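Continuing the batch. This is chain 6 of the set; chains 1 through 5 are on the previous pages. Same settings as before, nothing changed between runs. Recording input and output for traceability.
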Amino acid sequence: MDHLNAERAKYEKMWAQPAYRERSPGFRLVATAFDWMGMREGQTLCDYGAGTGRASQWLADHGLRVTAFDIAENAITEFDGPKVIGTLWDMPAFGTFDYGFCCDVMEHIPPEHVSDCLKGIALRTARCAFFQIALFECHMGKGIGEHLHLTVKPTNWWVAALQRHFGSVEIKPGETKYVIAKCTP
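Output for chain 6:
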């Protein structure tokens, strides 16, 4: 099985686990992102790594035209808008957006694909992208015998990676477990 299909199969197994669906890091931060980025009704947004789609639905309910993107066919069950299934490191052509929203996703990406993911998000984002990146290991994959957080790096590593693809990177101060960033082209 090739790398892409192996990662997809891993996340389809994870999304089949009820405990994995309980948490939604993106939903926890969606209102913060909405305010910090100055989003307005009618603007477009892609939720990169949408997971359950809870954050996507919240954003759509607040007037944004949202597209949810995820690697796993069975992930996005709580969003009733457009969905795209694919990988962030080899994204299909499906448009550009005013905003990007990417929470608890980048640490799941294989290290050799991080730059391609950030490049793809930057190329598809016209105004601003919001990231939350975990700086710690995740043990949820043990139930299926898989490792989930493949790229656990310190804050300065992630900031440098973001700066290679975005013109401006603003980091929310005081965070020790996550990089929370607002990035503009």
